[in-house]
Amino acid sequence: MWLADRLANLVSGLGGPRDKSTGNLHVHVPRAPAELDAAYRDNWLARKVVDIVPFDMLREWRAWQAPPEVAAALAASEERLALRDRLLRGLRLARLHGGAALLIGDGAPDPARPLDPETLGQGELRYLHVLPRGRIQAGGLERDPLSPWFGEPRSYTIAGGQAVHPSRVVRLLGAALPDDAVGDGWGDSVLQALLEAIDQATAAAAHIAAMLPEAKQDVISVPGLSQHLSTEDGTRHLTERFAYAARMKGLFGMLLLEGDGRSPEGERYQQKQLDFSGLPEVARLFLQVAAGAADIPVTRLLGQSPAGLNATGESDTRNYHDHVAARQTVELTPAIARLDRLLIRDALGRSDPSLRYAWRPLAQASEREKAEVGRLKAEAAAMLAREGVVPAGVLARGVEGWLSAADLFPGIAAAFGRPAG
């Protein structure tokens, strides 16, 4: 037996039989892939909602916390495999269709067999292919909590019926589902929940654009108009007469009419104009709703400066950067962890569990800010040298590493005889 517990007000009718909202019911209507593709290709706002977050997640890429020679080898493997480009394409497809995959190729004759990282040698990763959701079918999810593949598909099938072991696949998901049991191993398109708000925002702009030709209209009241239009000759004469009057108005800025414009026998001329004063705020409101639904600030979504007295947009931008950084840590890093282990073997020919990396911050410091931070660090280093807290050789090594990576003095890393980190 279900018990209803909600707010009711007998005076206003809230929650009662007169409350129209009591009939609201959410029904899930999946968007067809063709509709999602059409929205992405034809609707500028839908395309930006799909593309912006993956681009920002990978815009500054990552920095390996490793000795320069190791970091250079890892970067070379990433570049050879076009990892950044493949991830960008995969994340975009995942947001659009609810899922995508990166297929890891090592030249194995049977991709249905597991890919053991310990058997991979240096330079043996051959390719990373991006597969849209429609080109790779996920098998049933592993339900055994004791299995290392718990929560992931037991296998995949690609075009031609070829089975692929999950160790060879990087699964990228779109919007999360409430329960894995209701899906097919993938997620929802981000447009599934946003497309209504996006359509409303673009429709509001389209309706305003359609009103522009109607902004100013000439209205002429013609006595006996219906009688003139009752015959072909009358219609033709009336049409020719006002076509000539329109040309006169366009050429000389004057309109010739019969009568004084006030008597029943005379024609009366009026000009009506539409009031657009509140429409920009309406259009902006719909765009703000769409931006809020997409978790993207309006300043980033529309590429415009913040509006309002003393508005800088710094808090919105900072919150968005924190949001993207959290997604990098919580979603992207675990998703590519298996690939990173293979990448280390490909770059170094050995495993190194101690290797770590950090996502570079989205907010890049200006030259003035870099110089100010450099001044503070130089003062700190000078203080440590005077006090003798840190051995001179260790401190010199630290200052050398900082200057090589700080991008304050171009070429200083080469002058130290070390590759830039």
Distance between the termini: 65 Å
The proportion of residues in beta strands is: 5-15%
- Number of alpha- plus pi-helical segments: 14
Number of strands: 10
Low-confidence stretches: none
Number of domains: 3
Instruction: Please outline the major beta sheet.
Output: 3 strands, antiparallel
Q: What is the structural class?
A: mainly alpha
The whole-angstrom Rg is 33 Å
Describe the structure in your own words.
The protein is mostly helical. It folds into three domains: 30-214 and 280-364, no CATH class; 216-273, no CATH class; 367-421. Helix content is 46%, strand content 11%. The chain has 14 helices and ten strands. It has helices spanning 33-42, 44-58, 68-80, 83-97, 191-211, 225-228, 232-252, 279-294, 298-302, 314-335, 337-348, 367-387, 392-405, 412-415, and strands spanning 62-65, 99-105, 127-132, 136-138, 156-158, 162-164, 169-173, 216-221, 268-273, 356-359. The strands form four sheets. Strands 3-2-7 form a three-stranded antiparallel beta sheet, with helices on one face. Helix 1 crosses helix 2 (44-58), helix 2 crosses helix 5 and helix 5 (191-211) packs antiparallel against helix 8 (279-294). The chain starts with 32 loop residues before the first helix and ends in a 6-residue tail after the last helix. 19% of the residues are buried. The mean pLDDT is 83. Residues 35-381 form the Anti-CBASS protein Acb1-like N-terminal domain. Pfam families: Phage_portal_3 (PF06381). It comes from Methylobacterium terrae. This is Anti-CBASS protein Acb1-like N-terminal domain-containing protein.
